Amino acid sequence: MSENIERRRFLKCLGAGSLILAPLGCSSVKEEDSNSNRPHYAMVFDQNKCVGCGECKEACNKANNLPEGKSRLMMEQQSGGVEGQKCSHCGKTECDCERKYVRVSCQQCKNAPCVTVCPTGAAHRDPATGIVTMNADKCAGCKYCIAACPYDARYINKDTDVADNCDFCLNSKLAKGELPACVQGCRYDALIFGDVNDPNSYISRLLAVKDSVRIKSHFGTEPSLRYIPIVKQGV
Amino acid sequence: MDGTLEFTMGLSDGIAWPWPIAVYLFFAGISGGALSVALFIRFYKKQVTNTAFLKASALVSFITISLGMLCLVLDLTNPLFFWRILVYYNLNSVMSIGVIALTAYIPLVALIAMFALEEEIKRIAILRPLLPIIDKLRGIRRPCEVAVLLLALSVCAYTGFLISALIRFPLINTAVLPALFVASGLSAGAAAAKMLAVGMFKEDLHSQDMKILHGAEWPIMFAEALFLFMIIMSLMTGNAGAQTAFEAFHSGSWAMVFWLGVVGVGFMGPVLLNFATGKRFSHSAQAFYLSGLCAVSGMMCLRMFILYAGQNFAI
Q1: Which residues, at least 6 apart from B281, have a Cβ–Cβ distance to it below 8 Å?
Q2: Distances (CA, A) of B98 to B18, B93, B102
Q3: Among B15, B84, B314, whose Cβ lies nearest the Cβ of A138?
Q4: How far apart are CA A194 and CA A184, in angstroms?
Q5: What SS3 class is residue A41?
Q6: Helices in A72-224 by DSSP H: which ranges?
Q7: What is residue A14's predicted lDDT score, i.e. its pLDDT?
Q8: Residue A145 lies in a domain
Q9: Distances from the Cα of B258 to the Cαs of A215, B250, B251, B262, B297, in angstroms?
Q10: Structural contact between residues A129 and A174, judged by C-beta atoms closer than 8 angstroms
Q11: What value, to the nearest 5°, has the Cα angle with vertex A109 and ends B168 and A75?
Q12: Which of A170, B45, B171, B196 shows the greatest Cβ crowding within 10 Å of its Cβ?
């Protein structure tokens, strides 16, 4: 008899408990998604200011202890002559085209294909900062992330044999409270870094007044790198 | 300038996935295809004995998937990192799902091969320790076969899903690719297994199994051609990115691989050998082996073409 009552009470508690806990469980997932207090780090490349000196690359190489000559970013020259080479804009060896450069590096996508495809979770989003970065101890070197990146912005680090990407110097500089090495190294203020979720940050105020574009936005990756292009096309 | 900024350089050196991956896709396709066809026939005909075709399929399937794994491991930047893929998982990743499927598939294929090749194992002295295991597991043979049939088809399709997730390459990033890989896996797998069945396990060229195979081959090959045609048409009539990728079919050396290797050898080869030659030749052993080889090499060319031409024409 008493056993029966015990069972009934147990079942009652179970039913009531699940009624209370189930809605709680559902709502907690939502809360996490709309957490707007978390930072969203972004970078702006101002094409108007870049002169193509390449000091960003050297700073990157040094800060992240990369193999010689390698850095996590590249500069693509899109117009303007280099001695002995054809201008990639007009095709002539000697031309008056303005020199134009574009930063080529990880675009820090909000919807990052590398993170989705990585079989081991080595390419992941840092929980605290939301920055896409690498856990070198988990990477198996399958190169799936490199093939999946729509920007071809990832590579294999020859020293460590694992994939690598620009993570805004997450471990080498941001962890110490410093700006990314390339931003520090740029003497022309062509690179601006900051939290776009903070309305008072310099980058937020800059993006509020300047027109900026994202590269290959049709891929739906929502990159965090923004470019302020040169729009002047001659007189 | 179309109003947006673009760059064309990349940080990776050339293509990310070179030929070992194409070979792996090829082996995985053959393995899954061969075993699926053999088990289809076994279930359809309600066979209970170990037929020559089943023996050959199980053997082909086990050898090819092992070689495929070897290619996969050797293509890692450091093959010693292989354990990481087995220890860490990311269920959003197609590759991780594939690893789970393969870790179930490979031991099961080994088991199926042991069941199918029991008599042969009895004859080989060093394999005799396997006999008690076969005896013990005999009761679960049927459920194993059902599971391995599902897994074999999944592995074939997985090789397609694996690369169709690469959004940068219009030729690869198509919905039809997994279906194409299943179809070509079935046809090449069946071809490889039937050659081995006749060559090694002394199957009669005109036995009942061979007749069923012969009837099934042409519809599968037709489906394969149809899927390829669908990809070509969607690229030809597609947007700017698709149109760039369509160039793969008419320019560069990979177009040659496609038209000579895939279409010429893979499709026209077996068709001509069977229908354009006299009845005496088309029923001979030479024609049988030659058309089997054509199907298998056509499939290899297809994998190479899709992987290389696909990665060369990126957007």
Answers
A1: B287
A2: 19, 9, 6
A3: B84
A4: 13
A5: strand
A6: 113-117, 144-148, 181-185, 202-209
A7: 73
A8: yes
A9: 33, 9, 11, 5, 12
A10: yes
A11: 75
A12: B171
* ipTM value: 0.90
**Which chain B residue shows the shortest CA-CA distance from A219?**
B167
Identify the domain containing residue A64 by its residue range. 41-228
- Domain assignment present for residue A35? The answer is no
3-state secondary structure of A18: helix
What is the model's pLDDT at position B284?
87
What mean pLDDT, rounded, does chain A reach?
87
Can you give the pLDDT at residue A23? 54
Three-state secondary structure call for residue A73: strand
Least confident of A230-234, B112-116, B249-253: A230-234
Sort strands A132-134 and A191-195 into parallel, antiparallel or unpaired. unpaired
Return the minimum-mean-pLDDT range out of A74-88, B150-164, B171-185.
A74-88
Residue in A117, A146, A151 closest to B95 by CB: A117
Question: What's A194's DSSP letter?
Answer: E
Is the CB of B16 less than 8 angstroms away from the CB of A119?
A: no
A100 contact B CB<8A = no
pLDDT at B275: 87
Assess if residue A30 is contained within a domain. Answer: no
Number of domains chain A is built from? 1
Of A142, A155, A227, the CB nearest to B12: A155
B41 — pLDDT class (breaks 50, 70, 90): very high
C-beta atoms of B96 and A119 within 8 A: yes
Domains, chain B: 19-312 (1.20.1630.10)
Place of tokens 């193999």: A67
Candidates A83, A124, A108; CA nearest to A180 is A108
Q: How far apart are CA B161 and CA B32, in angstroms?
A: 15
The answer for residues whose C-beta is within 8 angstroms of residue B209's C-beta and 6 or more apart is B41, B45, B51, B52, B53, B197, B203
The tens digit of pLDDT for each residue in B263-308 reads: 999 999 999 998 888 888 888 889 999 999 999 999 999 999 999 9
Percent of chain B at pLDDT above 90? 81
Angstrom distance (rounded) from CA B53 to CA B39: 10
Span A154-160, average pLDDT: 94
Minimum CA–CA partner of A153 in chain B: B11
Instruction: Say yes or no for a CB contact (<8 Å) between A154 and B4.
Output: no
User: pLDDT value at position A28?
Assistant: 44
Q: Give percent of chain A with pLDDT exceeding 90.
A: 70
Q: Which of B36, B164, B52 is nearest to B109 (CA)?
A: B36
pLDDT, averaged across chain B: 93
